Amino acid sequence: MTTITLVQGDITRQSADAVVNAANSSLLGGGGVDGAIHRRGGPAILAECRKLRAGHYGKGLPTGRAVATTAGDLDARWVIHTVGPRYAREEDRSELLASCYRESLRVADELGARTVAFPAVSAGIYGWPMDDAARIAVETVRATETDVEEIRFVLFDERAYDAFAGQLG
Fold first, then answer.
1. How many CB atoms lie within 10 A of CB 117?
2. What is the pLDDT of residues 107-166, one digit of tens each?
3. Is the pTM of this model over 0.85?
4. Which sequence positions are flagged as catalytic?
5. What domains, with CATH codes, occur in the chain?
């Protein structure tokens, strides 16, 4: 049985087997959650991301997919990088956003992770409306078969926390 919990705070301060990074396709760091994870996790994460780019992910990680690296200096074993879609009114990309959560849990299962901390993927700089991002995230993790024991959504502010709390009912 998987437990879903909510925390308001900084995902880089979480103790978990795996921390999910809302990455960009380059895997080389960026703003928001991505930049924070790379800064706090240190150079080991970037080094492994560069190896991924030099190999199988030469063109970058596709939207909706996930891949793991070391967690470097974070209080975790792994960082699972996933690339969320940019929000677009004219195109329904919700399946790509749901795929980020499913693929991250698939990678977590392959790694043997029992606790996974997720941010609100795509709800920051990628512009996804928070209430809809929360709905997709919660519905997807509830519907995904996984051996992960605790899925923790780590929300940066009260607005995000409230949106996710509303979905958990």
1. 25
2. 999 999 999 999 999 999 899 999 999 999 999 999 999 999 999 999 999 999 999 999
3. yes
4. 34
5. 3-168 (3.40.220.10)
